[in-house]
Amino acid sequence: NYILEAVDVSFEYTDGTKALDNINMKICKGQKTVILGPNGAGKTTLFLLFNGILKPKSGKIMFNNKEVKYSRKEIEKLRKNVGIVFQNPDIQIFANRVYQEISFGLMNLGMPEDLVREKIEKVLMQMDITDIKDKPTHFLSYGQKKSVSIADIIVMEPEVIILDEPTVYLDYEHVSKIIKTLDDLISQGKTIVLSTHDVDFAYSWADYVYLMKDGKVIDEGKPIDIFSD
Ligand code: ADP
Ligand code: ADP
């Protein structure tokens, strides 16, 4: 049961850089898919295609077994259903205070304030960041910013949560908090896709792994199969 698929997808940036070269990838609903690959492999580009920020040059993106046709309505639907947490939290966080930051998306939908408050309290607890809810975002540590940027996305309750290098530059405590949150989301039936350089983490955590290099998928499989050779 695949919720997202890339079928023969290629992508080139306007300066001619070939970022993705005939990618085929299937994301199983409710599973933990990990994409491993060095810098420049095309992971971020693929993520931007998965939520409709970019459009393939050739090939197609499928969501719930339907080809995305890139009408405004379909792109909106894809973005609503597929949330991305970017690697750098600074490009995602723009409100002055944590509570305001996390409530922004819901307020924007016109959700009543008491319902917004309820959802935010829940996410703050889930991520164990209730203590910083009134803090200025400007003064947060990198790990706190990372948590806030994840809260930003999960409060919107997308079906698929994509995270670009969620554990990089973090200490053990923050990493385990984030992993606990991701496991919670899985137990709620959400689908997680994340990129990492961390082979041990991929091996121990993923249900399914894709190895990317130079814009291509060079291997894929269950961790036990992919790391045994
Ligand atoms: P296997 O025989 O190795 O257990 P399956 O029969 O389950 O594999 O799957 C057949 C194909 O479906 C695989 O080669 C792979 O391309 C794809 N596939 C299987 N599981 C997943 C998954 N969790 N995520 C993405 N693709 C998968
Ligand atoms: P990864 O996330 O695996 O590091 P990216 O998707 O960021 O890979 O990059 C894939 C390729 O596309 C790299 O060669 C990178 O330099 C290039 N690239 C990324 N963003 C842009 C852009 N905005 N314009 C031109 N080239 C880009």
Automatic annotation (TrEMBL):
<keyword id="KW-0813">Transport</keyword>
<dbReference type="GO" id="GO:0042626">
    <property type="term" value="F:ATPase-coupled transmembrane transporter activity"/>
</dbReference>
<keyword id="KW-1278">Translocase</keyword>
<dbReference type="GO" id="GO:0006824">
    <property type="term" value="P:cobalt ion transport"/>
</dbReference>
<keyword id="KW-0472">Membrane</keyword>
<keyword id="KW-0547">Nucleotide-binding</keyword>
<keyword id="KW-0067">ATP-binding</keyword>
<comment type="function">
    <text>Probably part of an ABC transporter complex. Responsible for energy coupling to the transport system.</text>
</comment>
<comment type="similarity">
    <text>Belongs to the ABC transporter superfamily.</text>
</comment>
<dbReference type="GO" id="GO:0005524">
    <property type="term" value="F:ATP binding"/>
</dbReference>
<dbReference type="GO" id="GO:0043190">
    <property type="term" value="C:ATP-binding cassette (ABC) transporter complex"/>
</dbReference>
<comment type="function">
    <text>Part of an ABC transporter complex. Responsible for energy coupling to the transport system.</text>
</comment>
<feature type="domain" description="ABC transporter">
    <location>
        <begin position="4"/>
        <end position="229"/>
    </location>
</feature>
<keyword id="KW-1003">Cell membrane</keyword>
<protein>
    <recommendedName>
        <fullName>ABC transporter ATP-binding protein</fullName>
    </recommendedName>
</protein>
<dbReference type="GO" id="GO:0016887">
    <property type="term" value="F:ATP hydrolysis activity"/>
</dbReference>
